[in-house]
Amino acid sequence: MISRGERVANYVILSAFAAFALFPIVTILSAALGPADSGGTAGLGNFAAAWEIGHFGTYLRSSLLVSAFVVVVSVILSIMSGYAFGTMRFRGQSALFYLFLVGIMMPSEAIAVPLYFDLRTLGLIDTFWSVTLPQVALSVAFGTFWMRAYFRASNRAIVEAARIDGASSWRILWRVLLPPARPAVVTLTLLVFMWTWNEFLIPLIMVTSESLRTAPLGLAFFQGQYTSGFTLLAAGSVIVATPVVVFYLFLQRHFVRGLLQGAVRE
C-alpha cells in the first residue's frame, strides 16, 4: 500500500512534468491573444488576421484532404497486412516482415531525394499523389507492425470456431477479429493522423503550388513571407495545431485503451 509521503511525492513529480509540458502551450496562447506587434487591440482578432493574411483556409483544407486519404488507405492496408502476418503462414513471411521493419526504421530524410527523382520520372511531382503516396508507405510499415501484434495475440479458439462454421479468411477478419480490435485501430488512426498532419519535409520537397501546401508548410511560408511578428505567428501556430488537439480529445479514451491493450501484447 502506498504511503502518504509517496503519494505526495508522486503528485509533486507529476505536477512538475505537467507544468513543464504546459508552459510552451500557455506561452503560445498568451502571445496569440496578446496585443498585435503593430499595435491595436488584443484578443481573437489576431486569429482572424492570421487566417486572412496567411491563407490558412487553403492550407487546412489541403491538410485535411491529405490526412483523410493517408489515414483511410493506411489503416485499411495495415489491418489486412497485419492480419496476414499475424494469423497466416506463408513462404518468405519473415523476410517480408523484416522489410516492413526497415520501413519503420528508415527516416523520411533518408529517402526524400531518391523519392523525388522517382516521382519526377513518373510525372507526379507537384500533385496530390506526391504528398500522399510516400506517407501511406511510411504509415503502412508501422501499421503492419502494430496490427500484427494485436492479431498474433487474438483468441485462437474464436478463429477456429469461425473456420469450423465455414467462415472465410476475409469474413473472419472483418466480422470476428476486427470488432474487438477497435481500440487498436483507433490508436493507429490517431497516430497516423498526427504524423500526417505534422509532416513537413515531404510536402516541402514534392509540391510548389500554393493550393497543395499543407498547414505546417503554410505556417513556415507565413513566417517568412507575410509577417515577422510573433503575435500573428503564434495565432497561426494555434490555428494549425487545433485540428490535431480536437481529434485527440475526441478519441482520447480509445487511444489510451489501445495503448494499454498493446502494452500487454507481444
Automatic annotation (TrEMBL):
Residues 60-251 form the ABC transmembrane type-1 domain. It is found in: Cell membrane. One of its GO terms (cellular component) is plasma membrane. It comes from Nonomuraea deserti. The keyword Cell membrane applies. Signal peptide: none annotated. Belongs to the binding-protein-dependent transport system permease family. It is a multi-pass membrane protein. This is Carbohydrate ABC transporter permease. CDD domains: TM_PBP2. GO terms for biological process: transmembrane transport. The keyword Transport applies. PROSITE patterns: ABC_TM1 (PS50928). The chain crosses the membrane at residues 12-33, 64-85, 97-117, 129-151, 172-197, 230-251. InterPro entries: MetI-like, MetI-like_sf. Keywords: Cell membrane, Membrane, Transmembrane, Transmembrane helix, Transport.
